[in-house]
TrEMBL record:
Ranges for domain GH18: 1-378
Name recorded for this polypeptide: Di-N-acetylchitobiase
Example of a GO MF term: chitinase activity
Gene: CTBS
Ranges that cross the membrane: none
Entry keyword annotation includes Amino-acid biosynthesis: no
Signal peptide (from-to): 1-37
Highest rank taxon of the organism: Eukaryota
Species assigned in the record: Equus caballus
Entry GO CC: lysosome
Physiological role: Involved in the degradation of asparagine-linked glycoproteins. Hydrolyze of N-acetyl-beta-D-glucosamine (1-4)N-acetylglucosamine chitobiose core from the reducing end of the bond, it requires prior cleavage by glycosylasparaginase.
Keywords: Glycoprotein, Glycosidase, Hydrolase, Lysosome, Signal
Length: 378
């Protein structure tokens, strides 16, 4: 029951690079509440100060490396999670725009059962954030947990202790936690209300919502409208304040290889026998690849009225039919409207690098359109 794969969220992050030239002996100096200093990599040493402003609307961005960040829409961004690599140039730039730059935090649930281990892990994260002039941490603990397991309360404690340490040690810092698209249908039984209470807000990963096993092995949308919004309703019903929820949208889609395609565009990906849907071929595709392919597809962009999602069909070089489901400004704007209606804290995406920043005129327009779709419509 592991279809489709959670691909990109499962990448093992490379270790963060330290500030060049920093040796451990200097650490105690940096821990003093004196931010401006010789080690600040920014031209203006003031840019090494943490951001303390709390925006009314969050635009929460995951960055996975390279220099595409130079082309992001910084007029909107409030937080960037450096998911793969630290980049001091990005930190200086983000701070110059009033945006926070935060660490990605992942730790084994087994290990955090030990309160001493928890404390030392948190101390390490705070020190890393300080030496890199960062503004907090995004906890991305995507591990299975059963409701009765002893790690259940340890995870809540980890979030609370991380938030307390960061808030105490770095002025104005932000601690957030990534949750599944729904508190239901999940192998992650977390204490969602207590976790949301303990941290600044949670980022809801409203994607990877389709499992072919649920639909006679057919392909379907990555983040259908109704399924997505029902997830938020369920979090709110559990007692989570909407102002603690940030909607996370996919800037990627799923490419399914079809065994056959029905006249009404249903793509069967496997024979529905046991084991269920075995042999389904699917992989994630970033929006930039989708937009390069769609004009030469068999169908062009189609719209599924029930799922409120675009898709298209194409034939590969071996003659096999594929169906690609994705999100575009149209589907994203519909979901974003819910943020206003229910008073959520903001919006974000996995991940900002998925767009085309090559500068090609058509791609540039499509990329701007995707960023624009995040804006609240007043
Ligand atoms: C979640 O954590 C809170 C605070 O620690 C606790 O009071 C509550 O009982 C927990 N909820 C569940 C369902 O265990
Ligand atoms: C949305 O989903 C809910 C729960 O599954 C269902 O009751 C409702 O009819 C759906 N609404 C639409 C518009 O499909
Ligand atoms: C497509 O394949 C599925 C699964 O094997 C099968 O149930 C269905 O009848 C097929 N449809 C067509 C149009 O061949
Ligand atoms: C694809 O087709 C659309 C609609 O005809 C057009 O606006 C767009 O420029 C085309 N994209 C590319 C990459 O050629």
């Amino acid at each position: 029951m592991t279809l489709p794969p959670l691909g990109s969220r499962r990448l093992l992050a490379r270790p963060l690079r330290g500030v060049p030239g920093l040796v451990p002996l200097l650490l105690p100096l940096l821990l003093a509440p004196l931010w401006a200093g010789a080690n600040c990599p920014c031209q203006d040493p003031n840019l090494c100060r943490p951001i303390s402003h709390r925006p009314n609307f969050e635009v929460f961005v995951f960055d996975v490396g390279e220099k595409t960040w130079k082309f992001y829409d910084w007029s909107q961004i409030t937080t960037v999670v450096l998911f793969e690599t630290y980049d001091s140039e990005l930190m200086c730039h983000a701070h110059s725009k009033g945006a926070r730059v935060v660490l990605k935090g992942d730790v084994s649930l087994k290990a955090i059962m030990d309160p001493n281990f928890r404390a030392s892990w948190i101390t390490q994260q705070v020190q890393l954030a300080k030496t890199q002039y960062m503004d907090g941490i995004n906890l991305d603990i995507e591990q299975e947990l059963s409701c009765s397991s002893p790690e259940y309360d340890a995870l809540t404690a980890l979030v609370k202790e991380t938030a307390d340490s960061f808030h105490r040690e770095i002025e104005g810092s932000q601690v957030t936690f990534d949750v599944n698209w729904s508190p239901r249908y999940t192998d992650r039984c977390y204490n969602y209300t207590a976790i949301a209470d303990a941290c600044d807000f949670v980022f809801v990963m409203s994607y990877d919502e389709h499992n072919p096993v649920w639909s006679k092995c057919t392909a379907a949308a990555n983040a259908p409208y109704n399924t997505t919004l029902t997830g938020y309703d369920d979090f709110i019903k559990k007692g989570i304040n909407p102002k603690k929820l940030v909607m996370g949208l996919p800037w990627y889609g799923y490419d399914y290889t079809c065994l056959n395609l029905s006249k009404d565009d249903v793509c069967f990906t496997a024979k529905a026998h046991s084991p269920p849907c075995s042999g389904v071929l699917t992989h994630q595709v970033p929006y930039k690849e989708i937009m390069k392919q769609v004009n030469s597809s068999l169908s062009g962009i189609q719209w599924d009225k029930d799922q409120k999602s675009p898709y298209y069909n194409y034939k590969d070089s071996d003659g096999r039919i594929h169906q690609v489901w994705f999100d575009n400004p149209q589907s994203i704007s519909l979901k974003a409207a819910y943020i206003q209606n229910r008073g959520l804290l903001g919006i974000g995406m996995w991940n900002a690098n998925c767009l085309d920043y090559s500068g090609d005129p058509i791609a540039k327009w499509q990329t701007e359109d995707m960023w624009r779709a995040l804006k609240p419509k007043l």
